[in-house]
From TrEMBL, chain A:
Residues 682-701, 719-753, 790-817 are annotated as: Disordered. It is a peripheral membrane protein. It comes from Nothobranchius furzeri. One of its GO terms (biological process) is vesicle-mediated transport. Residues 803-816 have a biased composition (Polar residues). This is AP-4 complex subunit epsilon. GO terms for cellular component: AP-4 adaptor complex; endomembrane system. Adaptor protein complex 4 (AP-4) is a heterotetramer composed of two large adaptins, a medium adaptin and a small adaptin. SUPFAM superfamilies: ARM repeat. Residues 1020-1124 form the AP-4 complex subunit epsilon-1 C-terminal domain. The gene is AP4E1.
Automatic annotation (TrEMBL), chain B:
Residues 1-141 form the AP complex mu/sigma subunit domain. This is AP complex subunit sigma. Gene3D superfamilies: 3.30.450.60. Subunit of clathrin-associated adaptor protein complex 1 that plays a role in protein sorting in the late-Golgi/trans-Golgi network (TGN) and/or endosomes. The AP complexes mediate both the recruitment of clathrin to membranes and the recognition of sorting signals within the cytosolic tails of transmembrane cargo molecules. GO terms for biological process: intracellular protein transport. InterPro entries: AP1_sigma (IPR044733), AP_complex_ssu (IPR016635), AP_mu_sigma_su (IPR022775), Clathrin_sm-chain_CS (IPR000804), Longin-like_dom_sf (IPR011012). SUPFAM superfamilies: SNARE-like. Its main location: membrane. Pfam families: Clat_adaptor_s (PF01217). Adaptor protein complex 1 (AP-1) is a heterotetramer composed of two large adaptins (gamma-type subunit AP1G1 and beta-type subunit AP1B1), a medium adaptin (mu-type subunit AP1M1 or AP1M2) and a small adaptin (sigma-type subunit AP1S1 or AP1S2 or AP1S3). Binds to MUC1. It is found in: Cytoplasmic vesicle membrane; Golgi apparatus; Membrane, Clathrin-coated pit. GO terms for molecular function: clathrin adaptor activity.
């Protein structure tokens, strides 16, 4: 607020002394709070403050617990307590009184009580349960303010389990005549959706109603829910696209009441929310994206005012344009907006400009090229945040030509950065770039050294792992591998000769491994020297015991090289009595192996080539030992999960501490990856030189020699030298080739003729940073074709993804949907005539008019999907029905004989490629689910080598035959079978697949697809007796309770409801006694779920228990749907 | 969705805190301490946005008071800045050219206004008029009650 008068604490004493002045009247309303605050400001030390507050708190404590304290006094006390808590002093004693105040006070006292509750407690606090009754009472109050307060507190926090208790009341509020109440109710439902989506999933039609509310405030509140819903499942809400576009159109055109304007921009919050929703809907979906092009263009055009809020809208627009299916015209405009942001003098806009660039640079590298000089300037910006974002951008444009410069910039930044989080992030990025683009071995090793030393212990553990893996696996070129390893050895020996105590533990471990493994590559270094270095390391106090284990391992490997035994023996002596078991074991190994060369040679064979060792994973060589032990009375082996289960059941002592304490990778590597010592050819002189060369890092000046060398290697040397030669003659020449290659009207071309030295340096830097990009866009056509090919791939994926939901109703394109709506107008008319809708004022969102058709449309959508899912089960009872369907009939005949008698789902298309059509269905066997993929050739030639891979995180997928289908005759059909079992339950399982095949010219074609299977397909009845049920019930730990609707119109509601569940979900009804029933089902034999149902207050109270944590929730979801639908 | 909002003075004293995500008191204190330090260390002309740990911080200084919001990755930074601004406008309208002292001594009012403006971390009512109307209705009630109690000398 620009006109806020600056009154700081320095003015405090003078203000406080003027008690009689009118201005201070509001300061002294809370006189006791006032004196407390005044008292605190007069204090000079933290210690005094602490004493004062403690005194205050104990006096408050005394008063709140006194029975004579009135609610009015309590309110005042509570305000003071809030203040003390804000200062950081705990006042847990007051929490219960805050709840009491909210319960018993009059409206105003209640208000403070609720405020205190919302500040003191969070939604997992147990005291919150005590608030439920108060909220219930206030929700039913006739006083609007009380209702508002209750809804406000509910939207901030509410115990998850108690949502069903108040849900009906909150729902009811959606019909309230006051818009403020409706709005708050919608936000409360939003909160419920966030913390427990299952609890509100049956009232999705209510959300639709809120979206069509005549009050724009209520409507925009409902968008919060829709944003979440669409984020999770954009496919189901595509039909709303046109409505969101219409709403946005009206908002942009200024049709909303003036109240919604913010600095004369119409409803910016609403606009941004809608833009976010649209970008989710339009993402990789051309037809949906086309609906929104016009309004996006309009939004860009309207947002012209020079104010933060218009920039906020512009930024969101740009994000949306780059997310949805691209349109070149809009992209151009968006690029221009990004340019304006980047070039802006306002630092906030510059930051967002850079951020936008990082998002879009993959799609449009020219954009970064256009702004290269600005980017270079930002690299030296005084604000670290700008610098950091610039590095992020550079990270995205790194290629094998500019990697050295970019990594150097990142390392420079890390050396001045203090924040751990940023360091960890950047270190990971540097490691990634180094592995991907390293120009040569020396640079790679040196860079990784810096990564290890700077990253220290914040380093992600996978970085050293993948580094060591890379060293041991190497590349195809054995000579290159050796050079790399040798260089690493050299570098580490010199590091250990320096001051190893300063190196982080992770780095030391990596060094030890490399030295143990490869130090023999250096012929001129005696193993003894390396051993001594390692001993030195062992004796450093700060070395952790984990690192010590690594050191001992390295020593063990070194001993085989014929080193003198005195050192290792001494060491093993010391550590064989260590308290650390792992260390002791390593010491024993060292001792034993170093004295027994024959065994050593077998355990750690040297000179074995790269091929992985053959490992007998069944450990059959131990069979004799096992049978002997069993005969001697030993307990048979049990797999870990079984042990775990038994442990938890018997609550025996945990054997946890005896688990493995060393990374497995180490031990496995050391045995399997022994390297050959025979390839020694590089002179150490050469490698020494290289060490020197790359040791120069760390100076702050611009260092481009690294780049120069790379260019020489890559053949860029000539180009670069010519640029340097011409530089003095023609000022911007180092850039010129780039300018021409990039965009003609690049905005930095106004460089003045005499270029100061620093400017020249910057341009040099620019040319080295953007080198790869320039070459990419110089071959402009290629760049573009690459882009389109990428899009093409995405497009292919897209129909596959949308197929499962669109098999019955054809892809809904906007015009046809309009027609559809008109046809359905008879159904929708009763919605239109609902009382609220008749009050539509012409100003208030005329959209509502346009939208009334929507609810029923979507409900139909839901129904149709339900039907389809159920068809899997419906088909089960009458499989012959399938034959009537002409579409399926040809494929049904291809069902494998052994599966043909079993219930199977409808055959749905998965994806199509020019020559192949894929469809699938699943067949329910007693113990598993079989996914059948039909491949139907639509081409006139034979297709070869078809391979279909199906994966799913939550499912175990095993294919009947892993080998590709060798040949498919033209117009023939082949069927693949996959057995699916559940690993971890989920409401739906989304399988993603990849099909590849060869077409006649021998090129490989790949197509991706996805397929969705509901949990219900995996459910099987679990036939139990009541006694068995009883024992199982007690054994399971994970449970969920919820109320489900009861079929009240049936004669026996409970029986009827359970029958529906039995029929639809294949549950087994164990027994029904009175108003209680027990039901059981399972996924596999070891994945049961038990349901206990009870009729209570017109609802079916269901209590689910299972050993699998996720199963009850998922099953509940399907029960709810099954009941709703019937 | 907004994760939390903090108001603190140039001296680093916390004036208001609103958390929209459930965190333990210990975490809250730690975040507050570190964030206040980070923000106070920044110079006046610097960017209002910070990437801090895994949060996006948007802050702005008004006179002696810093307003600081933490949001999620996808949220629009500029609109968050405007949320802060609108809140300041609301406070200004309610208190009549607001200053830090108004917020110190009437912090519960500041909370009421905030709750009417933001709910559960989302903007619920962006119209200045409507927010203040809701607050004033409750305040009016207060006056009525005060009036009644003094009139009938009801036991307090």
């Amino acid at each position: 607020m620009s006109d806020v008068v600056e009154k700081t604490l320095t003015a405090l004493p003078s203000l406080l002394s003027l008690d009689s002045q009118p201005g201070s009247a509001k300061l002294s309303t809370n006189s006791k709070l006032g004196s407390l605050i005044r008292g605190i400001t007069e204090l000079t030390s933290k210690h005094e403050e602490e004493k004062l507050i403690q005194r205050e708190l104990s006096s408050i404590k005394e008063q709140v617990s006194s029975p004579n304290t009135t609610m009015r006094q309590m309110k005042e006390l509570m305000v003071r307590t809030i203040y003390c808590e804000m200062l950081g002093y705990e006042a847990t004693f007051s929490y219960i009184h805050a709840i009491k105040l909210a319960q018993q006070g009059n409206v105003l006292e209640k208000r403070v009580g609720y405020l205190a509750v919302s500040l003191f407690l969070n939604e997992s606090h147990e005291l919150l349960l005590l608030l439920v009754n108060t909220v219930l009472k206030d929700l039913q109050s006739t006083n609007l303010i009380e209702v508002c307060m209750a809804l406000t507190v509910v939207s901030q926090m509410f115990p998850k389990d108690m949502i069903p208790a108040i849900l009906p009341l909150v729902e009811e509020k959606l019909n309230h005549s006051k818009e403020i109440i409706r709005r708050k109710a919608v936000l409360a439902l939003y909160k419920f959706y966030l913390i427990a989506p299952n609890q509100v999933q049956h009232i999705h039609n209510r959300f639709r109603k809120a979206l069509c509310d005549k009050d724009p405030g209520v409507m925009s509140a409902s968008l919060h829910i829709y944003l979440q819903l669409i984020q999770e499942n954009p496919e189901s809400y595509k039909d709303l696209t046109a409505s969101f576009v219409t709403i946005l159109k009206q908002v942009v055109a200024g049709k909303l009441p003036m109240d919604f304007n913010y600095h004369s921009v119409p409803a910016p919050w609403l606009q941004i929310q809608l833009l976010r929703i649209l970008s989710l809907l339009g993402k990789s979906d051309q037809s949906t994206s086309e609906v929104m092009y016009e309004i996006l263009d309009e939004s860009l055009r309207r947002a012209e005012m020079n104010h933060n809020i218009t920039y906020a809208i512009l930024y969101e627009c740009v994000k949306c344009i780059y997310t949805i299916h691209p349109k070149s015209e809009l992209l151009e405009k968006a690029a221009k907006v990004i340019g304006n942001f980047v070039l802006s003098q306002r630092i906030n806009l510059k930051y967002l400009g850079l951020k936008a660039l990082t998002y879009v640079v993959h799609q449009d590298p020219r954009l970064a090229l256009q702004h290269q000089m600005t980017i270079i300037e930002c690299l030296d910006h005084p604000d670290v945040i700008i610098k950091r974002e610039t590095l992020e951008l550079l990270f995205r444009i790194t290629n094998d030509q500019n990697v050295t410069v970019i990594v150097e910039k990142m390392l420079d930044f890390m050396s001045i950065n203090k924040e751990d989080h940023t360091t960890a992030d950047l270190v990971g990025k540097v490691a990634e770039l180094a592995e991907k683009y390293a120009p040569d071995n020396e640079w790679f090793v040196e860079t990784m050294n810096t990564v290890f030393s700077v990253g220290g212990d914040t380093l992600q553990p996978d970085i050293p792992n993948s580094f060591l893996k890379l060293l041991s696996e190497g590349f195809d070129d054995e000579e290159e591998n050796k050079k790399l390893r040798l260089f690493a050895v050299n570098s580490y020996i010199s590091l250990l000769q320096g001051e190893p105590s300063k190196l982080p533990q992770r780095f030391l471990q990596a060094i030890c491994w490399v030295l143990g493994e490869y130090s023999h590559l250096r012929e001129d270094v005696e193993p003894d020297l390396v051993l001594r270095l390692l001993v030195k390391l062992l004796n450093i106090k700060s070395t952790s015991s984990e690192t010590k284990s690594w050191i001992l391992m390295a020593m063990t490997k070194l001993c085989s090289g014929g080193a003198p035994l005195s050192v290792p023996l001494e060491v093993s002596e010391t550590y064989s009595s260590s308290m650390d078991t792992m260390l002791r074991q390593r010491a024993q190994e060292l001792q034993y192996l170093s004295q027994n060369p024959e065994l050593q040679a077998r355990v750690l064979p040297r000179g074995v080539s790269q091929e992985p060792m053959e490992v007998d994973s069944s450990l059959s060589f131990l069979d004799g030992f096992v049978s002997e032990a069993l005969a001697a009375g030993a307990a048979p082996y049990k797999p870990p999960h079984q042990r775990q289960e038994e442990l938890s059941r018997s609550k025996a002592l945990s054997l946890e501490p005896y688990g493995l304490s060393l990374p497995i990778s180490m031990s496995s590597c050391s045995i399997a990856d022994r390297q050959s010592p025979t390839l020694l050819s590089v002179s150490s002189g050469l490698s020494g030189d290289r060490t020197d060369h790359s040791h120069k890092g760390g100076s702050t000046t611009l260092k481009l020699d690294g780049v120069r060398r790379v260019w020489g290697k890559e053949g860029y040397l000539a180009q670069r030298e010519s640029a340097e030669e011409t530089a003095p003659v023609e000022a911007p020449s180092p850039l010129q080739p780039l300018v021409q290659q990039g965009d003609g009207d690049a905005s930095y071309s106004q460089t003045p003729t005499p270029i100061p030295e620093c400017e020249q340096e910057k341009q040099q830097l620019a040319s080295s940073l953007f080198v790869g990009l320039a070459s990419q866009s110089s071959v402009c056509l290629m760049g573009k074709s690459e882009q389109t090919s990428q899009r093409f791939r995405r497009k292919l994926k897209d129909p596959a993804a949308s197929f499962p939901s669109s098999t019955q109703n054809p892809l809904v394109s906007p015009p046809s949907s309009v027609g559809h709506l008109l046809l359905d107008s008879s159904i929708s008319s009763d919605l239109i005539s609902s009382p609220e809708q008749t009050h539509l004022s012409s100003v208030d969102l005329t959209v509502a008019n346009g939208e009334v058709e929507l609810p029923d449309r979507d409900m139909k959508g839901i129904k149709s999907t339900l039907l389809r899912e159920d068809s899997a089960l419906a088909a089960g009872s009458s499989p012959h029905e399938e034959l009537d369907r002409p579409k399926d009939s040809c494929l049904t005949s291809h069902l494998p004989a052994e599966l043909s008698g079993l219930p199977h789902s409808e055959i749905t298309p998965l994806c199509t490629s020019p020559s192949l059509d894929l469809s699938s269905c699943h067949v329910q066997k007693d113990d598993s689910l079989v996914l059948l993929v039909f491949m139907k050739s639509s081409s006139d030639y034979d297709i070869q080598q078809i391979q279909v891979q199906v994966t799913c995180e939550e499912l175990e997928v095993s294919c009947v035959c892993d080998s590709p289908v060798e040949e498919l005759k033209s117009h023939g059909v082949v069927v693949c079978q996959y057995f699916l079992t559940v690993k971890s339950p989920s409401v739906y399982f989304v399988l993603s697949g990849m099909m590849s095949h060869q077409i006649p010219d021998n090129s490989l074609q790949e197509t991706q697809f996805s397929h969705r299977i509901p949990l219900t397909s995996f459910l099987r009845p679990l036939r139990l007796s009541t006694e068995e049920y009883g024992t199982m019930w007690l054994a399971f730990s994970h449970d969920t309770k919820q109320n489900l609707p009861l079929m009240m119109d049936a004669e026996e509601p409970l029986t009827a409801t359970l029958k529906v569940l039995k029929d639809k979900l294949q549950l087994h009804v164990v027994e029904i006694i009175g108003n209680e029933g027990i039901v059981a089902c399972c996924l596999r034999q070891d994945q049961p779920c038990l349901l206990h149902c009870r009729v209570h207050a017109g609802m079916l109270a269901v209590w689910l228990r299972s050993p699998i944590p996720e199963l009850p929730d998922c099953l509940l979801y399907h029960c709810q749907r099954a009941l709703q639908e019937s | 969705m907004m994760q939390f909002m903090l108001l603190f003075s140039r001296q680093g004293k916390l004036r208001l805190q609103k958390w929209y995500v459930p965190l333990s008191d210990k975490e809250k204190k730690k975040i507050t301490r570190e964030l206040v330090q980070t923000v106070l260390a920044r110079k006046p002309k610097m960017c209002s946005f910070l990437e801090w740990r895994d949060l996006k911080i948007v802050y702005k200084r008004y006179a002696s008071l810093y307003f600081c919001c933490a949001t999620e990755g996808q949220d629009n930074e500029l609109i968050t800045l405007e949320i802060i601004h609108r809140y300041v406008e609301l406070l200004d309208k309610y208190f009549g050219s607001v200053c830090e002292l108004d917020i110190i001594f009437n912090f519960e009012k500041a909370y009421f206004i905030l709750d009417e403006f933001l709910l559960g971390g989302e903007a619920q009512e962006t119209s200045k008029k409507n927010v203040l109307k809701a607050i004033e209705q409750a305040d009016l009630l207060q006056e009525n009650i005060d009036f009644q109690t003094s009139l009938f000398a009801a036991p307090s």
